[in-house]
């Protein structure tokens, strides 16, 4: 399941809490587009803002509305005990894979992160994707730690942070990682702006925020990548540059995608959990203009 | 309550979970030394690693064993909803004050952090201390934001991160903050290595990790500060330089204080919640040597 398009939807909220109907609308778009997997409760899926009970319920709703598409559920938490409980919940809800970021409060040592992955791998019966996102977790992986964790049972993919936009640099980096890691481990690009470059450099999967809301546009890119049509991958990705520019302007993708979901009428205009605040009316208008101009729907 | 020595004990764990007996032993030392307040479930108190239910129980235990000393309970969490629930729990447990760090997952904007403090201030009936610790929260305050938050009701103190070790720089900084903030707001130094310099520069309170385990040594320093005996403050603080050096060597105070608590027989040798790991046997031996050499007990 760790190939092609893995679509990461928002988990919208309303004043009453988790917006189940809005979430189901997002899932329906992803299943209609035929994504290869769904990343439930990723960073943009706001896992860090929900309680354990909410996270279990959200995983169940995702499973019930994912059709034949496998779901991967994020089990990130500061404490190892909580990660294990979340992993039990996610598997009980029918998750076919788990996603683990080494979320930190006290800065972590490599050995502590290794032990976290090792402990999880001893308690699961589904594959696990290593989630590398220093910006949100506060932890930076070394290549040596990647390799140690990849040697553990059940570890089958890595969700990398965004890479450079230089194709030559990215190609060199992907070659290096493919040489380092076992062939059973797939490499996933995230940071949507570098997805095209990453796929053209040989990444096996796009862990895609864009695919969570605009799955058809994202699927066209991963389809082109699977046909080795590098020119088309580049062209389709560059067409979306105005969207990537908005991500960059607003400190990441989450507030932009939340605004876009509201613009499309799929969620409330304000669908982010506090303390996250929605974009201003003016910035939301800019988002609306960009998605209209790009023909995204 | 936001003056003098605020002692921040560890919240020890054992294989069975929260080590209530060990925690009570730590509290007994603090009450015997006569600290001015107790900071329950601070960073070194591992709040981020416990569930809501555990945090409520830990606050209740602290209250039951704090004697006449007021307790301040940390209510930090990624989601505003959870902060409010934790604040209700802490107040129900008898907390006389709350401590709020703007813990982030997605990086936060100033307006979002302001709204978090504003929301909490509308839901409490006890004073709140602003907890500024960029290393663990991922958020850096501006002075302008300090001032805005200080103007909210119930905000009465700021727990600053460690400052420079240059007395002149620290004096200039404290003068600047005293000019900026209302007189009702006390300034608290943390980062134990800069405590002496901070107190001599006019900080009103030491939010002290050292005071959580060695309250007599810490109280001697805040007592000297209250007598304006700057030479003695400096001397007593510099005597502890070998302890501050261990904090620096081990990426912060928490693993060192956990090792020291084990060395003193107050907790299990391994009393940290996973994924945090205890120091190695060799490093623990060095901690034992330092506390013996300093006459800490």
UniProtKB/TrEMBL annotation, chains A, B:
GO terms for molecular function: 4-hydroxy-tetrahydrodipicolinate synthase activity. The keyword Lyase applies. Keywords: Lyase, Plasmid. SUPFAM superfamilies: Aldolase. One of its GO terms (cellular component) is cytosol. Pyruvate binds at residue 44. It comes from the Bacteria. InterPro entries: Aldolase_TIM (IPR013785), DapA-like (IPR002220). The keyword Flavoprotein does not apply. The active site is at 131 (proton donor/acceptor), 159 (schiff-base intermediate with substrate). Pfam families: DHDPS. Belongs to the DapA family. This is Dihydrodipicolinate synthase family protein. It comes from Candidatus Pantoea soli.
């Amino acid at each position: 399941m760790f190939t092609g398009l893995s679509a990461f939807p928002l988990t919208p909220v309303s004043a009453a809490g988790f917006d189940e109907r809005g979430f189901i609308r997002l899932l329906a778009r992803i299943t209609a587009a035929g994504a290869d997997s769904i990343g439930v409760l990723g960073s943009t899926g706001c896992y860090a803002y929900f309680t354990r009970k909410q996270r279990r319920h959200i995983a169940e709703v995702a499973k019930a509305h994912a059709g034949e598409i496998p779901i991967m559920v994020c089990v990130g938490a500061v404490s190892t005990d909580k990660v294990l409980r979340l992993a039990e919940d996610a598997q009980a809800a029918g998750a076919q894979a788990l996603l683990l970021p080494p979320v930190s409060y006290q800065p972590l040592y490599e050995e502590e992160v290794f032990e976290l992955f090792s402990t999880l791998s001893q308690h699961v019966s589904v594959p696990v994707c290593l989630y590398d996102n220093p910006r949100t977790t506060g932890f930076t992986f070394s290549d040596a730690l990647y390799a140690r964790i990849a040697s553990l049972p059940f570890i089958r993919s890595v969700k990398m942070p965004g890479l450079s936009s230089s194709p030559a640099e990215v190609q060199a980096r992907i070659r290096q990682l493919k040489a380092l890691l076992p062939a059973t481990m797939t490499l996933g690009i995230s940071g949507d702006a570098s997805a095209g470059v990453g796929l053209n450099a040989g990444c096996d999967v796009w862990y895609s925020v864009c695919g969570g809301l605009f799955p058809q546009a994202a699927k066209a890119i991963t389809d082109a990548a699977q046909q080795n049509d590098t020119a088309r991958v580049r062209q389709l990705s560059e067409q979306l540059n105005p969207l990537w520019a908005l991500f960059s302007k607003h400190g990441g993708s989450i507030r932009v995608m939340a605004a876009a979901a509201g613009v499309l009428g799929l969620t409330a205009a304000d669908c982010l959990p506090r303390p996250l605040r929605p974009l201003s009316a003016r910035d939301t208008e800019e988002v609306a203009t960009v998605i209209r101009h790009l023909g995204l729907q």
